[in-house]
UniProtKB/TrEMBL annotation:
PROSITE patterns: FN3 (PS50853), PROKAR_LIPOPROTEIN (PS51257). Gene3D superfamilies: Immunoglobulins. InterPro entries: FN3_dom, FN3_sf, Ig-like_fold. SMART domains: FN3. CDD domains: FN3. Residues 25-110 form the Fibronectin type-III domain. This is Fibronectin type-III domain-containing protein.
């Protein structure tokens, strides 16, 4: 009887040690504007005894998406606007890490998609065999 009680206590201790331990906070969290309408977020892998199922990405207080990769691209944003992000890991038992420190980035002022005008009236004068002067 004592042997069965010992095994039961050992099994309970093992289950307690394996479950409900939240993943570590995602590391090296950074956000960077990549255009007037896009911000990229990246982070490093969290650790968890039961593995990490996915990461939750938040903008401000709003949930954006969940992802299994270590990056996220937020698109369709307003130019010249600051956006703040947070990320957290969700483990195999739905245990959740704390948020990584919130990071912010400002989108670029505008997307200049128009090509510059073609120069006209250029005159080339030879200066030497390997140089010219454009005016």
């Amino acid at each position: 009887m004592k042997y069965i009680l010992f095994i039961a206590i050992a099994l309970l201790a093992l289950v307690a040690a394996c479950g409900d331990t939240p993943p570590t906070v995602p590391g090296n969290f950074t956000v960077n504007a990549v255009s007037a309408s896009d911000i990229s977020a990246t982070w490093s892998k969290s650790a968890n005894h039961g593995g990490v199922s996915y990461y939750e990405v938040w903008r401000g207080n709003s949930f954006l998406d969940k992802t299994k990769i270590l990056s996220y691209m937020d698109s369709g944003l307003i130019n010249s606007t600051t956006y703040c992000y947070a990320v957290r890991a969700v483990g195999g038992s739905d245990d959740i890490s704390d948020f990584a420190e919130t990071k912010c980035a400002k989108t670029f002022p505008y997307d200049d998609v128009s090509p510059p005008t073609v120069p006209t009236g250029l005159v080339a004068n030879a200066i030497s065999q390997t140089e010219i002067d454009l005016t």
